[in-house]
Amino acid sequence: MDKAFVKERIQKLRKLIDYHRALYHTFDAPEISDEAFDTLKNELEELEQKYPEFVIASSPTQTIGGKPLDKFVKVRHEMPMHSFFDAFSEEEMKEWYTRLEKHVGTTMLGKATRPLFYCELKIDGLAVELVYENGVFAKGSTRGDGIIGEDVTQNLKTISSIPTKLTQLGKWSIPKHLVVRGEIFISKKELERINKEQERKNQKSFANTRNLAAGSIRQLDPAVAASRKLESFQYAIATNCGQRTHEEEHKMLASWGFSVSSDARALDSLEEVFMFRNDWEKKREKLGYEIDGVVVILNDEKIFEAGGIVGKGPRGAIAYKFSPRQATTIVEAIKIQVGRTGILTPVAVLKPVGISGVTITHATLHNFDEIERLDVRIGDTVVVTRSGDVIPKIIAVIKELRSGKEKKISVPKICPIDGSLLSRDGVLVRCPNPSCGAKNKHQILHFVSRGAFNIQGLGEKIVDRFLDEGLLVDVADIFSLQEGDIAPLERFGEKSAQNLIKQIDAVKKINVGKFLYALGILHVGQETANDLAKFFISRSRKIDIPSLASFFEGCSSGDLETITDVGPVVAKSVVEWFSNLRNKKLLEDLYDAGVILEEKKREGRAFEGMKIVVTGTLSLVSRQRARELIEEQGGDFQSDVSSRTNAVVVGENPGSKYTKAKELGVSIWSEDDFLKKVGVR
Question: What is the pTM of this model?
Answer without folding.
Answer: 0.61
